[in-house]
Amino acid sequence: MRSKTVIKMLHPFINNLRRYILLFALCLNSYCYGQVTNNSTIDSLLQSVVNSNVEPGLTVGLVKNGDLIYHNSVGSVNLEYGIPYNDSTIFDLASVTKQFTSACIGILEHKRMLSVNDDVRKYIPELAFYQDTIRIKHLLNHTSGIRNHNVLLDLMGFDYDHQGYNNETIEQLMFRQNGVNNLPGEKMLYSNTNYVLLALIVKRVSGMEIDEFTKKELFEPLKMTNSFYKNDMDAIIKNRTYSYYKTKDGYKLSNSLSLCVGAGGMKSTISDLAKWSQVFLYSTHPYFYLGKFITHTDKLINGQEMKHARGMFVSPYKGYNTFNHSGREIGMRSQFICVPELDLAVIVYANSNAINAVDISYQILDLFIDKITETNEKPETYTHKKGELKKYIGTYQELNSDMKMQVFVENDTLKAKSSLGNQAVPLKSSSANSFQRFDNPSVKHIFLSDKNSKVSMQVDFGGAIFYFETIVLDPDPNKNLKDFVGAYFSKELNVTYTLSIKDTLLSLDYPNNQGITLIEGEEDVFGSNRRTKYAFCRDEKGKIVSFKVASEGTVNNILFEKIN
Question: pTM of this prediction?
Fold first, then answer.
């Protein structure tokens, strides 16, 4: 009788337990079904990008709730032998490397071996003093003003097909520089040189090359067994990808002769990067302090909050905060993005410049965006009154560049057309003085009215800022081109430029670059339509004695003195 009574008493509990088990099973089935659906959708997406094994391809990893829930690849890592991707394919990270170089600084600060507020010259005294103190944090967040070495090499006429360079090459080049682009902390100008110098600081503080330091302090502790900084151009790397760039005649193999680490130069795998994503997603992770260090955002001198942190961008996307960085070289593209609120990371690598890894990553991310959250996001509802758009009309030119942007109104819509673009881009209002692109809302045009600043427009590409000033073009600014003819030498670049007149136009020659036509736009200012500007200087008698070169927004005031 007692046993029957006990069983009878347990009936409600047993029934409730059955309900919970059933509910759990339904939820699990729903999650699994949703995941299977997402996996199928991602499979279809990849196959729509690459539908042949005789093409370069891509590999994708998706981390959710601490697990690598999706990993698939399409295409070939080697076109000569038609070798497909596999689960352990090793690939280049390019600029995604920067967060790992930043992590090295974070570890050294954690060990109290340095501070991000230290003067860079404490560790690199060979650098000139540029009128204000450049601190380690300025290198990390790209506000140092230090010139981008990639652009300097281009201005030198560096022959990438037959020459190579390494960290020491770049260091010696930077030690010759007599100027910077801006005051430390004044503005964000993306420069790979910042991270080459950070690698040098890691070496001098730790006593180890960065490949050795990261192996000991990062990769071995995190069990990232297939991650490393390159230290030998000729080393055999099993299971690696080959990079290809697309031409009108088909794909060509991209072979670099250079080995420069810090800004890039790291290799990894999907599974290793999945492990790395945990430092950004979980506060209980022993290296979570590095995730916080890398994603820490500083403020500019004017108090503006930055979107670029320390090796990663911190960007909003459809109501969520994301940590992200992409990488690109001539024959590859990479993307790494973490969304802590979704407990999610997306990793994409492609061994072709024709595949947009960033776009693919956001298409995948969209599969996990809660539609309710998305609709709750504050809509951009600002509308400019009729006639208000006229005040933005004008010709804008990028600072430290000859790239121009025409802003005009067509059919009551503000449009912008770059001198390097094929067509105008329509803009829609987002606030009183800002607009976003119809086809890409993450790109914003902000118009400024500060009379004390040269900058009159900023174009924000998800945290990477490009600065523009208003200019007035003169149809015939330079009456006598013979004034500019001659040879000019730059001590900073150790190169000679020669200017002559060809077919009534000013023509520039320098190593590996001949017959570049310079187009005039303002008095004593010319451009090459390659994001490079040449501003000439005259003496008190009006004779041309020198010119200064600015290029690609990240190099300014390179002096060339006339030698004959």
Answer: 0.89
